[in-house]
Amino acid sequence: MSLSEHDITRLAERVETAQTYGHSIRKLTEDFPDMTVADGYRVQTALRRSFEARGHRVTGWKAGLTSKPKMRQMGVEQPSIGFLTDRMAVAEGGAISVAELVHPRVESEIAFVMKDRLAGAACTAEDVRAATDFVLPAIEIIDSRFTGFKFDLESVIGDNSSSARYVIGGRPRRLEDLDLRTIGTMLEVNGEIKALGAGAEVLNDPAEAIAMMVRVLDELGEDLPAGSLALSGAITAAYAVVPGDFVRASFHELGSVSVTFTE
Ligand code: OOG
Ligand code: MG
Predict the structure, then answer these.
(1) Atom of ligand 1 nearest to the CA of 233
(2) Measured distance CA(72)–CA(255) in Å, rounded
(3) pLDDT digits (tens, 9 = 90+) for 208-250
């Protein structure tokens, strides 16, 4: 930690304004080159508290940068986490206005819904499987608030890991019947295949990404409550979208989920 409380509050306000009005800002480390990952999470926590004070409800958490294709695409080698709120949720088959965002990209992910609370620095993928109610296909819409979608780990954590919107759909499935490592996914935009992958891209097992997330939550003094939504991270590289695009993520065994982008 290197930043003062005052600096953390200022940075959280800067990020919140950019997220709310959909405009881009400089990377946080440009003004604070000594900023640490812990400082990034302090900014993210201040952002979360501010949204909660405005009536936004935290619905769950997401893991990010958990696959090699994503790490390569963003040039960041470590995973991050971020919070999800009710205001980010978009109905399956719904529409998202691009004007509200800076430069949105779509990601194909496996979503977990928890039946039991998970917490602690020793959380394992086995613990995650035991605490999971069911899994579903998801499209996460990420939107870095940083110019050119370029960032470092410290800055992206302060920007809530680029969280913007999410869509959950398909068929709820129990984990007992599935091997998430071999679940294939296909990301299509306007009927054209943009990316293909399998669950094992995500830290070798998407349940491992959720365990990683719980261990980071423990460091933040938080847990993953029963009933939470937990996104395990993009399986493939993210794909940029424009108004008029129709996006569908299809999964072996889990069905598909879709969303449209408008002006
Ligand atoms: C950071 C968020 C990454 C994922 O699923 O990997 C993420 C970013 O790439 O902007 O959500
Ligand atoms: Mg994601």
Answers:
(1) 5
(2) 28
(3) 999 999 999 999 999 999 999 999 999 999 999 999 999 999 9
For 171-213, write each residue's pLDDT tens digit: 999 999 899 999 999 999 999 999 999 999 999 999 999 999 9
Give the CA diameter of the chain.
50
Q: Which atom of ligand 1 is nearest to the CA of 238?
A: 9
Q: Which residues line ligand 1 (CB under 6 A)?
A: 62, 64-66, 70, 74, 107, 140, 142, 144, 156, 161-162, 233-234
Residue to probe by mutation, ligand 1, list 44, 68, 161, 236, most atoms within 8 Å of CB: 161
How many CB atoms within 10 Å of residue 181? 15
Pocket test for ligand 1, best of 44, 62, 65, 112 (most atoms within 8 A of CB): 65
pTM score of the predicted model:
0.98
Ligand 2 centroid from CA 103, angstroms: 15
**Class of residue 262 by CB neighbours under 10 A (exposed 0-12, middle 13-18, buried 19+):** exposed
Ligand nearest to the CA of 64: 1
Give the total residue count for the chain.
263
Q: What's the token pair of residue 80?
A: 């991050």
Decide: 158 and 30 in contact? Cβ < 8 Å: no
Q: Are 61 and 140 in contact (CB under 8 A)?
A: no
**φ, ψ of residue 198 in degrees (nearest 5):** -130, 155
Q: Which letter does DSSP use for residue 25 in this model?
A: B
- The sign of the torsion formed by the CA atoms of 260, 88, 47, 218 equals negative
